[in-house]
Amino acid sequence: MIKYPSRHCTVELQALPSRIGQVRRIVSAQLRYWHLDPLIDRAALCVTELLTNVHLHAQPDKTCTVEIELLLDRLTVSVRDSDPRLPVVADTGDADALATCGRGLAMVAAVSESWGVRPDGDAGKVVWFTLPTPAATVVRGAGARPPQRTAVEQPARRFAEVGARVDLRRPERAPARSAVVG
Question: With CB atoms counted within 10 Å of each terminal CB, which end of the chain scores lower, N or C?
């Protein structure tokens, strides 16, 4: 018997403009399924920015994986690509007010609770962001209640910070490979 509905979704794609729109719709549909409607706009904006960065900058190809995971009171969305170069956050203070690029990661930082980047093996990286889930919309299975946890509110990190240090000697878990939403 399944007590909790699935809280993980993975999509593999080539980060082309038409595919970015499809993934944005998949993310929105998944969040609706999990009853997390208040997070849809922010999650769609952030995943669009991360996929646009893959489209514009990733080499040798545009292949990437988007992973959405709901754990207790946090939604984590990550984008994994095969380009080992880490993103550079532009200084928005010196940016031209009419510039059409260079603000994506600053927007992700402003909209999300936290974000970061970590190397992924010998080649590639993972860029991720988190959003807090509204307490009233936590997904529950039929009659089941997940363990309650006291949350300590902390201010969002500034966009210059990228999260906790990564111990490269410890292997990361392998990503799930599935195109099934659910």
Answer: N
